[in-house]
Amino acid sequence: MNWTSSANTIWRDLVVSARALSWGAYALLAVLLAMLVAVIFVAVSGWSSAAGADVPAAGYLALAFGVVFSMVVGVGLMALVFYSSRAGYDEPAKLRDEGDDPDAGSRR
Asked: Which of 71, 72, 79, 93 shows the smallest number of beta carbons within 10 Å?
């Protein structure tokens, strides 16, 4: 399979998926695209308005701490997700009858 047939297959699947979307999904995609354009506009205008401004060493230090802290939090939360999934904490709750628990009457 060459890359052109692979691209054609991907494009065909994309068109089939797009036809299956409802009008609400298209409206949501339009709003999200508008938000993306707005964020890009704000980022570009903010970046260009700060041209020539020097960042002090404390700014770079704060940026580095922020990036490291964000990475630590992200890695820690993902580790907790994997741990809880492996340890069985994500299993659905099960309703137990009083007959299932031998100590049900002794805990009053």
From this structure: 93
List the structure tokens of 35: 């938000």
Q: What is the 3-state secondary structure (H, E, C) of 42-80?
A: HHHHHHHHCCCCCCCHHHHHHHHHHHHHHHHHHHHHHHH
Give the Cα separation of 74 and 52 in Å (integer).
33
1 and 38 inside one domain: yes
CA 57 to chain centroid = 32
Express each pLDDT in 22-80 by its tens digit. 899 899 999 999 999 999 999 999 988 887 888 899 999 999 999 999 999 999 999 99
* Residue 83 forms part of a structural domain: yes
| Domain encompassing residue 2 | 1-51
- Asked if 1 and 47 sit in the same domain, the reply is yes
Cα–Cα distance list, 10 to 18, 25, 61 (Å): 12, 20, 44
Q: Rounded to 5 degrees, what angle do the CA atoms 89, 75, 78 make?
A: 25
